[in-house]
Write a structure and sequence with these properties.
The structure is a single chain. The protein has nine helices and no strands. It is 81% helix and 0% strand. It is mainly alpha-helical.
Length: 203
């Protein structure tokens, strides 16, 4: 849940603020900025989810912590791409880095949902998903949408322009993703040491 909350923080922040960043920093019109960034997100989401499901099953077959390990690696690898994307002056490069970052972010969709199902008794699964969804949004995108705006406004007078302030705010979303990756990798090691791995039993 912590790992997913950190990922949701970043994905939610990017979804809200990247089109504004494209307008301010690269002079794009609002419509094309939303359309292109949205298209990149959809494509990266589909490909990342499919790849994550296939890779996650393979890694889980080798180790009880495989789902968490793949998800943690994906988040950690995405972090530098997120940090670099808003600092580039070359617009096609921004889109390439954003696509790679989001592809890596979405690797965890299947594995972490499978892990949640696997570690909770059958009669608790609906409640577990409800609590998980509540926490990842309460501590994820519900916070990032406001916080990135605050950071952007505070940085603008220091950096000299609204574009630079927002670029910094967007780049800083790499930090929660890296934290989430570390949490998931630690979880992978802990689960791998458990006699039954992810499996739980009623009662």
């Amino acid at each position: 849940t912590i790992g997913l909350a950190m990922m949701t923080f970043t994905v939610g922040g990017l979804a809200l603020w990247m089109p504004s960043y494209l307008e301010r920093a690269h002079g794009m019109a609002q419509g094309p900025a939303n359309l292109i960034f949205g298209g990149i997100t959809v494509l990266a989401g589909i490909l990342g989810t499919l790849a994550g499901g296939a890779l996650g099953d393979r890694m889980q077959a080798r180790s009880a912590g495989g789902y968490f390990k793949l998800s943690g690696i994906g988040l950690l690898l995405s972090s530098p791409f997120i940090a670099l994307a808003p600092l580039l002056d070359w617009l096609p490069g921004v889109f390439i880095l954003v696509f790679i970052a989001e592809l890596l972010l979405f690797l965890n969709t299947g594995p972490l949902n499978a892990a949640l199902v696997g570690c909770v008794p059958v009669q608790m699964r609906s409640a577990a998903f409800a609590v998980n969804i509540l926490f990842i949004h309460a501590f994820g995108d519900a916070l990032s949408n406001l916080l990135l705006g605050v950071i952007s406004d505070a940085a603008t007078p220091v950096l000299g322009s609204a574009a630079a302030g927002l670029s910094l705010a967007v780049a800083l979303t790499a930090i929660p993703v890296a934290i989430g990756g570390v949490v998931l990798l630690r979880g992978a090691r802990w689960i791998a040491r458990q006699p039954e791995g992810l499996m739980t039993y009623p009662g």
